[in-house]
Amino acid sequence: MRSIQFIFRLGFLIACYFNSGWFIGGNPIFAQTTAGNAVYQFLKLPSTAKATSLGGLNISSIGNDLGLAMTQPALLSTELDGELQVSVKPYFAGIQQYDLNGANTLKSDWVVGWGVHFMDYGNIAQTDIIGNEYGSINPNEYSIQVGIAKTYQEYFHFGTQLKFIQSNYGPYRSNGIAMDVGVSYLAPNGLSQLSVLLQNVGTQLKYFQVKEELPLNLILGWSKKLDNAPLQFSVTAERLSVWNDNFYDMDFYNAEGYQKPGSLQNLFNHLIVGSQLYIGQSFELDLGYHFARRFELNLPNQPNSLNGISAGFSFPYKRVQFQYGTGFFQRNNYHHFTLQYALKQKE
What angle do CA 16, 22, 23 make, to 5 degrees? Predict the structure, then answer.
């Protein structure tokens, strides 16, 4: 119980420090926002198929997944030494997401993780005010990150990572730098894990006309494995620095017959739940539910039954682990593919 209290107190102190302090050139961190008008929204997209299948965000899952560790650096462990991961997620209209991640163990069991998160938005025609085309642009965004983690007294895991972020929209270019700080506590029986993560603390270095805020996110996560059943459950609470972070336009909602979200809806919109079912020694089925995604995607007179739901599976073959994840919205869904390869032979 003391360990649980310690990790939550530590997470609270981290959040207070960064939200009241100064970082890089005297920029006040308390000005950062988690709202939709923050810059570099692509940083919120899951970089691995397993994260996609578990609802889009999971910082506490018990296991050794490199993609989850690239979101929560405290999950970097020596078990990931020599792992290399490649992910592809095709969207619509030629939009593609690519991720490349790796991890290596240093002396004294420090673990370094590195990755590239790249968004290609395809070709977009350039036109004048009356619609005449005079060329095209290929907008893209990417982040390059390096993290490091260490285990303390066997059950506590601390990690941090730095990100360089670049955004290119034709002549409109900007870049920035951000930091993530995470802590996790794994229970001695290995069946429960608590995590706290402060994500995207940073600032823009170069911007177009007006400096914009980064998508700051304070996240808590808890995962529980059942002792006598092949199941693991996770609950993730995100965007905890604000109470109501929903996209809400009063005029639009009134015109379209939407209901303003109440207090209970605001509460659940911070939550993501996930489950993992282990079949045999290698095959895993995943299922996730993102409350805010369902709230934001539900439309009157539209098929909304699967909104907010995600699913996927993973299985290993020799040194390779294959992962697949998908998320649903109205009548559509997208596909996320990940391959994780062990460069070193595991015993």
Answer: 110
Task: Count CB neighbours of 108 within 10 A.
Answer: 6
Q: Which residues of the chain have pLDDT under 70?
A: 1-36, 245-250, 252-253, 256-259, 300-304, 346-347
- Could you give the CA distance from residue 310 to residue 230 in angstroms, rounded to a whole number? 20
Q: Which residues lie closer than 8 Å to 329 by C-beta, 6 or more apart?
A: 293, 297, 306, 307
Q: How high is the pLDDT of residue 251?
A: 73
The per-residue pLDDT for range 258-311, each reduced to its tens digit, is 667 777 888 898 999 999 999 988 899 999 999 988 888 877 666 667 888 999
Distance CA 154, CA 119 (A): 37
Distance CA 12, CA 171 (A): 41
- Decide: 313 and 267 in contact? Cβ < 8 Å: no
9/93 Cα distance (integer angstroms): 45
- The residues near 91 (Cβ < 8 Å, ≥ 6 apart) are 97, 334
Exposed, middle or buried, 176 (CB in 10 Å: 0-12/13-18/19+)?
buried
Beta-carbon count within 10 A of 210 CB: 7
Identify the pLDDT of residue 21: 42
Strands (E), the chain: 22-23, 27-28, 83-90, 96-105, 111-120, 124-127, 133-137, 140-152, 156-169, 172-186, 192-206, 217-225, 231-237, 271-279, 283-290, 309-317, 320-329, 332-342
The dotted CATH code for 2-342 is: 2.40.160.40
* Residues 179/161, Cβ–Cβ less than 8 Å: yes
State residue 307's pLDDT score.
Answer: 87
Predicted pLDDT at 243: 74
Residue 246: helix, strand or coil by DSSP? coil
Distance CA 42, CA 210 (A): 19
Cβ–Cβ < 8 Å for 73, 33: no
